[in-house]
Amino acid sequence: MWSLLSRPGTTDTDAHPDDAERHDLTISPEFTFIAPPMRINTGEAMVLKVPGDTPPPELVSQLSAAVARAPKNEIAKLVNDAQCAICGDSYPARHLLAPTTAQEMTVCPSCAFDGDMLGGHDPVRLAYGIDHLWFEELAMPAGWAAVAALLACAGGTAFVERLNDAGVLAVPGGTGRI
C-alpha cells in the first residue's frame, strides 16, 4: 500500500504538508491510501482519501474496510482469457507466470515446478514474476504465496543474493533487502 499526507487542492507533493510558504495551512491535511503500490495513477484498485483530523480508530476502521473491499472488487473484474501451458486450467493471462527460460511457457501456481516444463527452470525469473504480481495485483491467486514460500525455504542465502542482484523488490519470505 502507498500512502501520502497532503493538503487537498494542491498538486505540490514535494513540499511538506505543513510548509506555510507552499500550502494554505487553514485547509486540513488529507491522508491518501492507494493499493496496489506499483500501479500509481494507472488504474489503482483502491484509493481512499481521509481527512487528516480523522480520529485514529476511525481511520483504521475506514482503511480496513477499503482494503477488504478492494480484492473482492478486483476479483469480480477478472476474465479467464488464458490457459496454463501444463494443466490447461483457465486463468487471467496476467496471473500465469513464466518459471523457465522459455518466455512462451506460462503456468499456474500448481504447475510452477512441474517436471514436464521445457526450457530449464529459472527460479529467479519465477520469483521476479511473483514479486511483480504481488506489487501490482490485489486479486493475485493465493497459490502463488505457496510457491513463493517454497522458493524462500529451498533457495537459501545464495538465492537471496541472486534475487537481490536481479533487482527483485521483495525477497520471498521477507529475507534480504526490500
The side-by-side strand order for the widest beta sheet comes to 1-2-3
Give the strand content.
Answer: 5-15%
Largest sheet: 3 strands, antiparallel
Cα-based radius of gyration, to the nearest Å: 20 Å
What class, by secondary structure content? alpha+beta
Total DSSP E strands: 5
What does the overall shape look like? elongated
Topology pattern, helix = H, strand = E: EEEHEEHH
Uncertain residue segments: 173-178
Q: What is the arithmetic mean of pLDDT?
A: 80
Distance, first to last CA: 14 Å
Residue share in helix: 25-40%
Helix tally?
3
List the helices and strands and how they pair.
Layout: E1 2-6, E2 30-35, E3 46-51, H1 56-77, E4 82-83, E5 90-91, H2 123-136, H3 143-166
Antiparallel strand pairs: 1-2, 2-3, 4-5
Helix pairs in contact: 2-3
What does it look like?
The protein is of the alpha+beta class and 178 residues long. The chain is 34% helix and 12% strand. It has helices spanning 56-77, 123-136, 143-166; strands at 2-6, 30-35, 46-51, 82-83, 90-91. The protein has a three-stranded antiparallel β-sheet, covered by helices on one side. The chain has a two-stranded antiparallel sheet with strand order 4-5. α2 (123-136) crosses α3 (143-166). The chain is elongated. The protein starts with a strand and ends in a 12-residue tail after the last helix. The model is unreliable at 173-178 (pLDDT under 50).
Summarize the structure.
By secondary structure, the protein is of the alpha+beta class. The protein contains 3 helices and 5 strands, in the order E-E-E-H-E-E-H-H. The longest helix is centred in the C-terminal third of the chain and has 24 residues, at about 145-165.
